[in-house]
Amino acid sequence: MVKLEGMNNEYTEHFEKLANHAISQYPLNFDRLQFVGFYTNCILLAESGERKFALRIASPGWRSFVDLNSEAIWLHGIAEGSDIGAVEPVASKEVKYLTLATYPGSKTHYCLLMKWITGEKYCEHINSKNIYKMGELFAKLHKFSENYNPPEGFTTRKMDEIFAREEIVALYQKENRYLYTSWQYDIILKVKQRTDDAYNKIYSENDDMMVISHDLHHENIIIDESDRLRPFDFEDTCLGYPVQDIAMAMRDLMEDYPENFESYLSDFRKGYETHRKWPEKHENQIDEFMSGRMLWVANWILLNHKERFPDYMKLAIPKLEMFLNSGRLRY
């Protein structure tokens, strides 16, 4: 058994057993396991001689087998059919991308082994030049995906509403109304209606739908030694539209860099349009999906950090009201 280094808590033995079961299913001899972090799923660095890999041990129930397997299939397709440089999955001895890891008394976990990407965090190098390159990256992904034919058994899940992952939706529950003022709740409902209309419209057109990441933002990119942007973390892979993909990334960018957002959005668009036509079908379409994402974040905070919810409402509601009045969402 390979010892798990760097975790040193009550879960170390648990993940050490899972990781060893997982790596035993690959045609490699591993000699080191290092804890990287826990981001809903457990991420480990697995080394086989001088070769490095990322082992992701998914939390039970976080994603279905079909969704996680589709992610791996799509990433393999990107590696085989493009120079995008996305993280690449590794097949097991049985030529499968997902392995099942368990031990007596433990639940079964889906595991994915990927080639390690060496480089610096993109989020620590945000500037006009790199945002332009991020726009190019998105365009290349969308250009690849528009010609990609998902194989039989690929996920049919669509990001066709704000809460499309079977999440618990606490935002509108009667027992949580005390957390809002009447004005705040009215804004929430109006934004919901506006974004529901946006989802219904784009999915009724059924045009330009493709496989998208739907969670590729500035914290899910590495800059490698050749200064190339290398995207990772594709576990939200689903069917959707390029404008939704961009909206997810831009909302997160806007939250972290509100003072530079207008210029960064312009840089991103210029980079994107060097490879593909800008996907908005009407003015401020991206803002509609960014606003829906804000409701998703509000619901997540309510479920996981309820004590922070009132402060988030104070931040979010004025911005959402601005969106209702102008069609633009800005921090």
Report a brief summary of the structure.
The protein has helices spanning 12-23, 65-81, 128-146, 182-205, 242-256, 261-272, 285-304, 309-326, and strands spanning 4-5, 32-39, 41-48, 51-57, 98-101, 109-115, 120-121, 210-212, 221-223, 229-231, 238-240. With 331 residues, the chain is α+β, with helices and mostly antiparallel strands.
Could you please describe the fold and organization of this structure?
With 331 residues, the protein is an alpha+beta fold. It folds into 2 domains: 4-116, Phosphorylase Kinase, domain 1, CATH 3.30.200; 122-326, Aminoglycoside 3'-phosphotransferase, Chain: A, domain 2. 41% of the residues lie in helices and 15% in strands. The chain has helices at residues 12-23, 65-81, 128-146, 182-205, 242-256, 261-272, 285-304, 309-326; strands at 4-5, 32-39, 41-48, 51-57, 98-101, 109-115, 120-121, 210-212, 221-223, 229-231, 238-240. It has a 6-stranded mixed beta sheet. Helix 1 (12-23) links the parallel strand 1 and strand 2. The protein starts with a strand and ends in a 5-residue tail after the last helix. The model has no long low-confidence stretch (mean pLDDT 96).
